[in-house]
Recover the amino acids of this structure.
């Protein structure tokens, strides 16, 4: 099962990267990213900016996903996120994979 999942993810990443490279080569998509990238690989991914984005997305979504007491939970405050260390760190990475690890998905 593990091998099958790794193989599937690898093929999907390769396909997404190929599509992104093809689109940038043909000029069919405008480059709106703030970090430098090649295809889906961001060569200068700003880690602090990605964490800030995930934090903002979490704060914007309702805490109650079942809809039972959403109004009460919507007024609940999220904990503060403190980013400590090398806040200007940049490295090559696939942004979607980093943001998938960070808790932004429902």
């Amino acid at each position: 099962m593990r091998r099958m999942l790794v193989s599937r993810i690898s093929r999907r990443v390769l396909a997404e990267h190929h599509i992104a490279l093809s689109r940038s080569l043909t000029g069919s998509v405008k480059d709106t990213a703030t970090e430098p990238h090649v295809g889906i690989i961001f060569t200068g991914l700003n880690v602090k900016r990605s964490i800030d984005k995930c934090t903002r997305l979490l704060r914007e979504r309702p805490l109650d996903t079942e809809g039972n007491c959403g109004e009460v939970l919507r007024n609940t405050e999220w904990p503060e996120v403190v980013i400590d260390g090398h806040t200007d760190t940049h490295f090559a990475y696939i942004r979607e994979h980093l943001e998938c690890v960070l808790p932004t998905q429902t």
